[in-house]
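Let's practice the habit of predicting before peeking. Look at the sequence and jot down your guess about where helices and strands might fall. Then scroll down.
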Amino acid sequence: MTGTQLALLVVTLLTATVNAGIAAADLAGARFVLANSAEVGVPRSWLPRLAALKLAGAAGILLGLGTALRPLGVAAAGGLSLLYLGAVAFHLRARVLRNLAFPGFYLATAVASLALAVSR
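Done guessing? Here is the structure:
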């Protein structure tokens, strides 16, 4: 296994894990999710759909680890990147900067997954 392959594996597993975790928090209606989404102007009714997108992205990048489904992994990582770019935009629009690191972290893992998936 090359260094790039190992990095792809580790980053993909990290990205999938954190997305599954935050999707579960979205679906459970965790207090911090509800408070944050209300503060940045995301309607509560969006949370199940956003959770579904996060879970689909996590599944897609994991499936994309296989050579035959590499385009799926690239598309899923790109989709997650766009999702979190939107989350960052919502934070900036609402001027909620104190917890911008959270969507920023998710965006960074998605972009890293995308970059590594494209590079292999």
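How did you do? The CA atoms of residues 81 and 110 lie 5 Å apart.
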